[in-house]
Amino acid sequence: MAMKPVTFTLNTEAKAAFTEDGQNLLDFLRRGAGDLSPKYGCGQGTCGACTVLVDGEPHLSCLVLAETVQGRRVETTAGLGQARPHALQEAFMERFAAQCGYCTPGMLMSAKALLDRNPRPSREEVIEAIAGNLCRCTGYEPIIAAILDVAEGRIRA
Amino acid sequence: MAVLVESHATLGDAQRALGSDGTYLGGGTLVMREVNAGALQGRILRTSDPALRQIRPSLDSVEIGAGVTMAMILAERDLAHLHPVARAVGGPQVRVMATVGGNLFAVHPYGDLTVALLALGARVVSAGGAQRPIEDFLRERDRTGLVATVQVPRPREPRGFAFLKVSRVKPKGVSVLSVAAHLPRDGGRLRGVRIAFGAMGPTPLRAQAAERVLEGSALTPDLIARAAAAATDGLDPPTDALASAWYRREVAGVHLRRLLERML
Asked: Average of pLDDT values for B156-179?
């Protein structure tokens, strides 16, 4: 199988790694770049657990061909709050927005993409922003509340 | 056999290299899941041809590149009539990847944008430059080759076009069915009526019986009731995990009526 070099920015760090032909970005991040924060859920773009940001936009990393991130910037949950927890992480803890926790990395990245673009979203905009992320534990309300806590300044990093 | 990815500079190069064994990768939302499942092997072709990502408005239509995503449609004020349609596709992560070109080839339960394009009477321009009405394209899409752009007529008035998607999961779920209607008015009467259903056959299809009821008349609640009664005439909806053919036949007219009532 052909191996192709990919250079990209992972969070704040310049990275170079080899990708196999047809490898998706999720597998490439986890096995090639050693970032285990995006999770494998369904592998078919349904669950959102693998959500990462590519050039600031939320993407399902299981559906992105790894070689297409050449020269681009990828953000994952591992890059959130490296020194201390990010405001969203604080809010998720405060609101018990993670139960089993498997959806949490994807939820955090979808929420970050929203707040980066729209710092004061409405409840409806929050719901729309996480519409591509499934959570089978919380019933979503604690997650929505956590994101609104950050948006409305009740929780800061 | 493994997957072999080829990157081409232009769409034309990709079309020439496609052959009978190649699979073209657009946004990736459909092809990559096949790759992940091991269901698709062999040659995969892609291009980052910037021409594919252009939106070119003109007076009475908009030419949309096959690589334009749902998110790009939502960011384009000139395509406001397609915003409710683009928003009905997937969640935010799917919308930044899913393309107009990919949607034209998407099989049920995907392809909601194509339902709207069919109702608007779009023309599909292939990589070689050939143009054909979207009905013809949909009939032959297994062997049409790659698509370069879609020429989409603009509705003359905002209430002349409407779209509705029916799904069980809100706000993001696949279609039980979708329906779009384009009702141009000429002196109070409907001229050139086009109604399209998704999930009522192997590709998006026009509801020609309902169109015939509306054509040439003024839109009234009584006329809408008669069009709704004819909604599924000539259509053969599928049974699948989302709904049975019987259910689709029962509810198609109800949803068509609700859609047309918004256009009164």
From this structure: 92
The model's pTM is: 0.96
Chosen domain end from A29, A44, A79: A79
Q: Kindly write down the DSSP assignment for every residue of B243-254, as one continuous string.
A: --HHHHHHHHHH
Burial of B84 (0-12, 13-18, 19+ CB in 10 A): middle
Are A132 and B94 within 8 A, CB to CB?
A: yes
* Topology annotation, domain B158-261: Enolase-like; domain 1 (3.30.390)
The parent domain of residue A50 ranges over: 3-79
Q: Which residue of B has its CA nearest to A56?
A: B96
> In the predicted model, what is the mean pLDDT of chain A?
96
The DSSP H or E segment spanning B140 is: none
Task: Tabulate helix, strand, coil % of chain A (nearest 5).
Answer: 35, 20, 45
Whether B5 sits inside 8 A of A24 (CB atoms) is: no
> What ipTM was assigned to the predicted interfaces of this complex?
0.95
Best of A46, A63, A110 to mutate (most B CBs within 10 Å, chain B): A63
User: pLDDT at position A1, please?
Assistant: 62
Mean pLDDT of A59-80: 97
* Surface of B (66-105) touching A: CB under 8 A: 71, 90-94, 96-97
